[in-house]
Write a structure and sequence with these properties.
The chain has 308 residues and is an alpha+beta fold. The protein is built from seven helices and 19 strands. The chain binds 4'-deoxy-4'-aminopyridoxal-5'-phosphate (PMP).
Length: 308
């Protein structure tokens, strides 16, 4: 059994293969395929505190991405999406967290032979969550480094998949940045064009237009990315998805990253080159609108929130 001290932050309940369990009882075999070969698939979702109670941000879109991810790896999730949606809501409710990070995951267990999963392989589905409040109350510009490792390409593995196996690359990117005194890494794609940060998407503001790498640059189609594109267009900005050269990072007026964990965060410098004038007016407009949405104050985007 795992020591309770290691599980403290996960509250009193997790959902595991159809049952609500206490975290110390949700265990798997050390011979799980995922542990040996990285066959894990997951989502990262946030529940925010609003005046009308706790609301999960874009739950349907996150779950849809989880099913798209597993499909690309020939793995069929043994639950209907409606069941998982209820399970996510139930898990958050039981833990009583007002704001939290939610981690649904699907991974292969025992029942494999010489790498290949057998027909009877166990496909585990789990949902856990832990407290996490929005960091938007204290925005700050972070310092980024272009990493020496590149992102994989879709010629090697599906890059639209939120697959655990992609995250050793993310870890190395982030490790290099942090070891060298930076906060975040920016990865280039296999062709040397800007891709994304270690676990977030990147946007550049150039002359009042907003630019972001297209999905062809090994970019995960982030739910926050899509949300920001929608917000920016509604604010009247043109958003251009295209191939972006590394040089453009250094000369952009503003650079920011987006992600479930990162939310919307300004990049103050890249490779110690300061970005723009040190003011981020367009990022701030988007951030303000994003904050209105996640706190339930926007009348236009209520459909992005699932109240629990
Ligand atoms: N890229 C990568 C590699 C990520 O891990 C994430 C986080 N899921 C993102 C981008 C941002 O995606 P989202 O906005 O859906 O969290």
């Amino acid at each position: 059994m795992i020591k309770p001290a290691h599980l403290e932050k996960y509250g009193n309940s997790v959902w595991f293969d159809g049952e609500i369990l206490s975290p110390e009882h949700a265990t798997v075999s050390i011979m799980s395929h995922a542990l040996h070969y990285g066959s894990g698939f997951f989502e990262g979702i946030r529940a925010y505190e609003t005046e009308k109670g706790t609301a999960i941000f874009r739950l349907d879109e996150h779950l849809a991405r989880l099913y798209r991810t597993t499909k690309m790896f020939y793995v069929e999730i043994p639950f209907e999406v409606a069941t998982l949606k209820q399970a996510v809501i139930e898990t958050v409710k039981r833990n009583g967290f007002k704001a939290c990070y939610i981690r649904p995951s699907v991974f292969l267990g025992t029942g494999w032979n010489a790498l290949m999963p057998g027909n009877d392989i166990l496909i585990h589905t789990a949902i856990s969550c832990w407290p996490l409040a929005s960091a938007i109350v204290t925005p700050r510009a972070i310092h980024a480094k272009v990493a020496s490792y590149r992102r994989f390409s879709s010629t090697q593995t599906p890059m639209q998949a939120k697959a655990a196996s992609n995250y050793m690359n993310s870890l190395l990117l982030k490790h290099e940045a942090v070891q060298n005194g930076f906060d975040e890494a920016i990865a280039l794609d296999i062709n040397g064009q800007v891709s994304e940060a270690s676990a977030s998407n990147i946007f550049l503001v150039i002359d009042d237009q907003i630019h972001t790498p297209s999905l062809a640059s090994s970019v995960l189609n982030g739910i926050t990315r899509l949300s920001v594109i929608d917000i920016a267009k509604k604010l009247g900005y043109s958003v251009i998805e295209r191939s972006i050269a590394r040089d453009e990072l250094y000369t952009a007026n503003e650079v920011f990253i987006t992600g479930t964990a990162a939310e919307v965060q300004s990049i103050g410098s890249v490779d110690r080159i300061n970005i723009g004038s040190g003011h981020y007016p367009i990022t701030e407009r988007i951030l303000t609108e994003f904050k209105n949405i996640i706190t339930g104050q926007s009348t236009t985007h209520q459909h992005w929130l699932s109240f629990i």
